[in-house]
Design a protein that fits this description.
Blueprint (H helix, E strand, L loop, with lengths): L8 H12 L4 E6 L2 E5 H11 L4 E4 L5 E8 L3 H10 L4 E6 L12 E7 L18 E6 L4 E7 L4 E7 L1 H11 L3 E5 L3 H8 L5 E4 L6 H12 L13 H16 L12 E2 L7 E2 L1 H6 L13 H5 L5 H12 L5 H16 L1 H14 L2 H6 L8 H21 L5 H9 L4 H10 L20 H11 L1 H16 L5 E5 L3 E7 L11 E5 L3 E5 L1 H33 L2 H27 L5 E3 L4 E6 L17 E5 L6 E5 L6 H17 L7 E5 L3 E5 L12 H13 L6 E6 L7 H17 L5 E5 L8 H4 L3 E11 L2 E10 L7 H7 L4 H17 L7 H6 L5 H9 L1 H12 L8 H15 L1
Parallel strand pairs: 1-5, 7-10, 9-12, 10-11, 13-23, 18-22, 21-25, 21-26, 23-24, 24-25
Antiparallel strand pairs: 1-2, 2-4, 3-4, 5-6, 7-8, 8-9, 14-15, 15-17, 16-17, 19-20, 19-22, 26-27
Amino acid sequence: MAKASSDTPLMQQHRAIKQRYPDAILLFRVGDFYETFGEDAIVTSQVLGITLTKRNNGAASSSELAGFPHHALDTYLHKLVKAGYRVAICDQLEDPKAAKGIVKRGVTEMVTPGVATNDKLLEHNSNNFLAGVYFGEHIVGTAFLDISTGEFFVAEGNAEYADKLLQSLKPAEVVFQRSFQKHFKETFGTKFYTYTLESWLFEEKYATESLLKHFGTHSLKGYGVENMHAGIIAAGAVLHYLKDTEHPNLQHITSIQRIDKDEHLWMDRFTIRNLELLGTGVDSGHTLQKVMDNTVSPMGARLLRRWLVLPLKDMAGINERLNLVEYFIKEVDLRTKIIQHIKQCGDIERLVSKIPLKKINPREIKHIARGLQHIQEVKNSCINSSNAYLKRLADSLNPCTYIAEKINKEITENPPVQANKGGMINTEVHAELDELRSIATNGKDYLLDLQQKEMQATGISSLKVSYNNVFGYYLEVTNSHKSKVPESWIRKQTLANAERYITPELKHYEEKITGAEEKIFQIELELYDKLLVELQDYIAPMQLNGNILAILDCLLCFAGNALQYNYKKPEMHDGAALTLKDSRHPVIERYLPSDEQYITNDIILDPDSQQIIILTGPNMSGKSALLRQTALITLMAHTGSFVPASAASIPVTDKIFTRVGASDNLSGGESTFMVEMNETASIINNISAASLILLDEIGRGTSTYDGISIAWSIAEFLHNSPHKPKTLFATHYHELNELENKLPRIKNYHITNKEAGNKIIFLRKLAPGGSTHSFGIHVAKMAGMPPALIDRANAVLKQLEEKHGDGGPDISSAVKQLAIPQMQLSIFDAHSETFDEIRKLLETTDINRLTPVEALLKLNEIKGMLK
């Protein structure tokens, strides 16, 4: 905004504040409105659909202006942030009535996508992470902080690991070094909302000091992150950014946890995408998360999402979860009781996080107290359980009895939503407050008593007590009774037929009653603030409660799923063989028509005898579904869930790799084949003995011979690898069936089908042995291709099969010898002279100089020649 010499003091103040927040929209509080000026106003009016006006600054210069009432902040703020803008909220820092000169103003909060705490900006079932990324020389540090729950995670690894975490945890905003902008986009893509910070902030000494100061500790050893140097730098940058965006009250961030690569089953981002764990790329697509998430609390839903992308690799931890799920299935009454209590607790993590931010309202505080009572019930129900893990979880629950009782004693049963409305403090909490309330509510009774008392004392029957703005309360006496007025009364006004008086008692009462409302309000706010300060001491135990309830919620959800969808307990073991009996795809089976039965399949992968399955079968027969269900069942078991199979023996798996389906990255300039090769290279270079690999249609993005050669060599490589990784390899190259005869641990399987007349029915059942052809033409027919096209395809296929049959020429020779349909040849014979004429006409035409009309005429001329 250009400076005008005649700028008003208000505009000068606005400009000074705006200069400190140049990259944010400044919401400037003026009276009862939040105003925006200049460029901010133009953007705000467009995003919010509000009127843009001009404001005259007192001179010829004028500025665009757009504003909305201050009470509509919640409505409009989330729209600006969702549109990707940073918003600085500038409030009045003093009471305008008491201000001398211009009212002091300052930014009280900066809201960006990653530091949102407003309920309208948050999804209840997923975290709203602010991520920090630090690019070190050989390592990338990452940190993830959810200011709305207080959860703080730190990790480090190579760029691929950082990419996997960013794609899995989907932060709302990412901060990183300014000098790495190009590198960030090349490594992680352009789909993240980012903000860059000065490079000097990314120093380990500064980051460590920030973290130690925040947690009030002498070292980070207690959190197990002291050796994660790159991670600490990323975490320090995140904390700095919060302070930078006016978020000084972070007492709810009570600890920092490490995400250890070695503790979790590894899936790269391709696998998370290919298995459709969290998203399908289609708005109404069905995901594993959608199918599995029957949690009853927001904390449980958020934790389940994290469990799916970071499954356990530790057998003891997995079995602990599985055994508790089994226990919950048997203990029906206990399960029902705990679910009901968890439902009643609300979103503990997000409620607690509002305490230090002073954004919690009286109704929410009351909800915390009720939640603590339900936590007491959960603790009582589980503390004597025969399941050791449940007993341990229950032992960690803290009902915070003192503060729960204090809230119930001090806050009314149905408090208002806003503290500044008053009426939230109970009776018998504060003696003066009760007295003032009595005066405020019983004022009329007091005045009637006073009137009655004075009438009896003076004998003035027409005496009445009234009020006006000039004198306040007064006694009015008609002229006929004037002689009876006592001397102690002070006359204030003479009317035509009456006199008005005041008395010391009336004046004293007036002082009490007029100040009562204000004093009541003041005392209530003081008591409320004291309660908030006391609540701060209970943030850490209440957050732990939230986490314990989230774990219980997830495991109760797994128990419910097992009962409802007939899942069975998987047997986890340290061996290498994977055996699934009557396995099903957890997502597909849920969305089958009600009259259709899911066809189950047995799958055995054993590095000693059946390490690689080459799976052939018609397109659309369910090869991809079979691959995916093997991976999903393995993944579900590692989260602690029962699985869709009648029996499952699953080895502890360290990595699941998939290369499934076409995923062109054309916008990134990569072809299907290049993407496919990148993903496959990532698999080949990272396998281990405990890996599970799923390959679907490798090599289809290039020519047939290249494709077969690459697929063949990949299968050979995996077979001969000393790791012997378990592999499912679906392909439409039937030539790969030859591998079974050459390599001992490769076995051919196909998906069965039957032909009825000229139709094909997919039986979706796995059977030993290879498949001979792909039935592509049948699928084309099912898709509605014209009959003439289908007939021609069958004719071509027949010719190719005859020529490419036993000892015939190779396929390229067979293609060269294909007969062109007679109909086409006869057209060319009959009209060869005409076509020569057309060719000559086109050769002599300069297309670049033709007008559209001339082109149409020329086309019409050619059409006439064909008649």
